[in-house]
Amino acid sequence: MAIQTRNKRKTDFSMASMSDVVFLLLIFFMLTSTLVAPNAIKLLLPSSNSRTIEAPPKIIVSINRDLDYFLQGIQVDEARLESGLYEKLQGHESVSIRLEADKTIPVQYVVNVIDIVNDINSRFNTKHKVIMATSPKK
Known about the structure:
The protein is built from 3 helices and 7 strands. By secondary structure, the protein is of the alpha/beta class. The chain has a domain at 47-136: 2-Layer Sandwich (Nucleotidyltransferase, domain 5), CATH 3.30.420. It has a 5-stranded mixed β-sheet, covered by helices on one side. Strands 1-7 form a two-stranded parallel ribbon.
């Protein structure tokens, strides 16, 4: 009487599941690498010795050397900047707005942003403030 086992062990290895995992990892890294490097605005910030440490700002306004305004990284014109700031500041009492302006632009463009925030403060009795971003002196 010969005893045979019912469960036979297979010694071959299927690579199909391994290739699926490799492709999923490839797609994952391709997607996350595009998210890591957002569209950055090229700015040459003015340098300063003073240092103001702020909580992470809720709103960032940038002005590049081509005199374009950016609200949270999205290019807007001056009229849209005012309405966009109003929308973002609505419902908040005191928000710090970081102003990143290229050091080669005329001061009038910086003053325009400060005037917009001051106008919102006076109309709605709020206390929003503008903080100028600088790079440290070497």
